[in-house]
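Q: How do we represent a protein-ligand complex in a form that can be generated token by token?
A: Start from the inputs.
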Amino acid sequence: MRPVIGIIGNSYLINDEYTVHAAGTLNCEAVRDAARGVPLIVPAAPCYGTLDEVMVACDGFLFTGGRPNVHPEEYGEAATEAHGAFDRDRDRLALPLIRALARTGQPFLAICRGFQEMAVAFGSTLHPEIRDLPGRDNHRMPPDGTLEEKFALRHDVALTPGGTFARLLGGEVVRTNSLHGQGIDRPGPRVVVEGRAPDGTAEAIRIDRAPGFALGVQWHPEWRAAADPVSAPLFTAFGAACRAWRAGERPAAAA
Ligand SMILES: N[C@@H](CCC(=O)NCCCC(=O)O)C(=O)O
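Then emit the structure tokens for the protein with LF53FM6H bound:
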């Protein structure tokens, strides 16, 4: 049996009338084709199940991208105009779930907004608009254009030599897309930054002393996940961790 991978998506209003919980097809395909798991969309709100119930239902979790920003209250700052829209339901599910997964060793991979949730869950602060910081580049996707253009490879990411990402991805420099406005400002004490864009923006993180697969990337590896030379090994390793969890293997607690 393939592992069941819970996809934490987003809520949307369709036809100006119906609220729905949804996750992008790209994420579902990445789980099926690159992680070799069964995608299961989990409503991004804490009111549908307890953390325990959600964790038992899945072998691992994918925290997807999403337009709304993590509410700055979660890292002790006040909301401003610059922070834009929020999704407090997703915050209230994702942050405790990430902490629980990092404690138990159940695998998770966090993408873009998910990466930012992971960072905040472990004490980081975010900057609402990193391109406003001195020396930083614009990491946002082009406002117009095709999906090809939006998900085009845009910058290098330098990985820590000998680190988890360099090992998994088979090199110390990878090329990635970029579709975000926020970024990590101050990383929390257990947030290990293993990848940076040329302007210094944190792009790849892991949680120190998490016993299992606990990785996050600021870019979007779900784009062409099975074919892309960076996405494929990342999802393959994530899928292997989920398969091991499904088989009953439990990672030893880190010292
Ligand atoms: N809001 C954050 C996160 C950016 C992000 O996840 N972008 C992907 C958006 C995909 C979508 O539109 O659903 C930021 O801008 O930093």
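The mean pLDDT is 97. The first helix runs from residue 25 to 34.
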